[in-house]
């Protein structure tokens, strides 16, 4: 099994996008700096979607500008279409995150495209980024189930993986957008994905809607995933997925990794401190377990 994994901090984008309280550009930048101070090397800092659809991300360009370039840190901009990709490149992000959807139901609601069309769009976004000398990765959302279509065939997800295998993406992620995956399903899909795309790494993205996220992270690592998305405090959701709740919490993942002897390069105490800072910022308790229980041994 792998001795180290990479954490992608998604709190500033996936975490905040569903928050009703509008968070200011300065507060977002402060949040990102806290993640960096805690050791985060790759951070999803904003999404470049229409501001009417996701008002919380209307200041994406300002966040990139205020933050500036930071040595050793990859600032990811999430994009769902070519227009968003051009905006993100123009703003100056280091890496584009493209999203394709494994089910037509979610694809049409989220991106107004069928599953097949979203794959084509994701490939276009990757080549746009590469043309500008930047990297891009692709996330397959609803890879474990769709809020509208129900079960998603693993064979269909693997077909998409096959189509992405040589598009130039720096990694391919399997995302459980609505938090329905279980570890056995995760093991199978990560293993098969890895076989198809190696040496391109597999990233995973879990939501804790049904309390399975941390178990799914472990199953994914055992099956060969080397990059984990997580959000400080476990905040987040999806504006277009009914009843989707938070991402797996960064601090919960770090606890799992620390006590299992897997390196990650982040500082658990500082991440817990930031989760508590978020509670003040958002005026509500965050869902993570570690923010409440603390590290062990203390
Ligand atoms: Zn998510």
Question: How would you describe this structure to a colleague?
Answer:
This protein has helices at residues 11-15, 25-37, 60-67, 82-91, 104-111, 115-131, 154-164, 183-197, 213-223, 250-258, 268-282, 290-293; strands spanning 6-9, 42-47, 74-79, 95-101, 135-141, 172-176, 202-206, 227-230. The model has no long low-confidence stretch (mean pLDDT 95). Helices cover 42% and strands 15% of the residues. It has an 8-stranded parallel barrel with strand order 1-2-3-4-5-6-7-8, surrounded by 8 helices. It is built from 12 helices and 8 strands. The two termini are 28 Å apart. Helix 4 (82-91) packs parallel to helix 6 (115-131) and helix 7 packs parallel to helix 8. The chain is α/β, with parallel strands linked by helices and 298 residues long. It has a single domain, classed as TIM Barrel (Alpha-Beta Barrel), CATH 3.20.20. Bound molecules: zinc ion. Zinc ion (ZN) is lined by residues 14, 205, 207, 236, 247. Zinc ion binds at residues 14, 205, 207, 236, 247.
